[in-house]
Amino acid sequence: MREKIWGRGMRRSFKIFAAASIVALSPSAAFAQTADDIMANTAAQLDLPTDITVFGERDPNIRTPTAIVNGEIVTRTDVEHRINLFLAANNAAQISAEERQRLRMQIVRNLIDETLQIQEARANDILIPRADIDQTFASVAQRSAATPEEFGAFLRTQGSSDRSMRRQIEGELAWRRVLSRYVNPFVGVSESEVQEIVERLESNRGQTEYRIAEIYLPARPDNQADVQAGAMRILQQISSGGSFQAYARQFSQASTAAVGGDLGWLRPGQLPPELAAVVTQMPVGGVSQPIPIPGGFSIIALIDQRQILVGNPRDAILSLTQITLSFPPGTVRETAEPRIEALASATQAGGGCGVAPSIAEELGGDIVQNDGVRLGDLPEVLQQNLTNLQVGQSTPPFGSLQDGVRVLVLCGRDDPPASAEPDAEVILNRLEQERADRRARRYLRDLRRDAVIEYR
After folding, report:
1. pLDDT digits (tens, 9 = 90+) for 108-158
2. Strand ranges (E), 260-352
3. Whole-Å CA distances, 328 to 3, 206, 214, 334
4. Domain boundaries, given as residue ranges, for the chain
5. What is the CATH class of 314-414?
């Protein structure tokens, strides 16, 4: 439904695909730098000497853009197509050579993981039928109002290919099926653990919690300035329309990178003081400047906020009618203004959704009915407009001459209950998913450890 409201377009659907994995993993509710992560990675376990002499230096001009993973080649073409897939999805075609090289090496790491996942599936006689890949690819194309052939042609114009996207689809489907066989069935959560969380929620009823995503970049004293500059470049790309989730997947060094940096719902006291001080002052939908924290920098995005066990107004379910006026390419604002003003006047004069079809017909517009739209899934500016509307009222016109000017008419609203009780089943599912995620990360870590990887 959200796609209908925001307008269709190949680039938007393309961006949605790149930003969100097909494998739906629930976000972890723990901060990326957990005590377990720190203990697992502490240098003390390596028994390193305090005084270190480095014998020789690695030539920074030696580039390793491709790899051979257990005998299977990740080609330069594979890497370039995946880079272009990422850049096009994030409107970031113009980046520096240094930034592109950093992205290239991250893409190589991602492709290595993807290859290992597909190899593990094959080793366990898990083969992804071509029909399943085609079906997923077609669903992505459909969100762009395009056929698979048209969408494949679009990808080629971006310097990528349908083969690259199909390979990504195969990797994600294969890994999901490996986990469903060897990880998910062996995750257990006790009733006492669920009850403990229920009691904790009750004790914190009414307190504000925040859903946060993070891009974490580690830094040392000797490279702190360079890392901060890199963080600013990432922030600039996000501010220019890039997907926070996609950049988190590619660049974040936290354990939550696999889920787009999503930290889940947290109270300020569960965050490091440096992040808590910023989060509590941010608007929903905002993205912070790089924040210095021990060990590096964090860029955080505030996805949503709510009060624990209190109804969230953003959970209201709306029924909307959308009227869209389209304009020929090259239309200037002065030419379009009379139709836009007529749309605003007609929809705000009253009559509600019942008169919307006649308004659309009179003004030569298109009309779409959207039911079951969650208020919080809409852009922040539309949330603000719709929150105070009564049934039958409409938003001011919004959009652009290139993508169409729209008006939303509110046909109905189902508000969430004023308060809620802890849902034991939801808590159980979340705990199981979090534990499955941790086991999946260990599984992939073991595959990396045992792999024979050559760089070329």
Report:
1. 989 999 999 999 999 999 999 999 999 999 998 888 778 999 999 999 999
2. 262-266, 291-293, 296-307, 317-325
3. 22, 51, 41, 13
4. 314-414
5. alpha beta
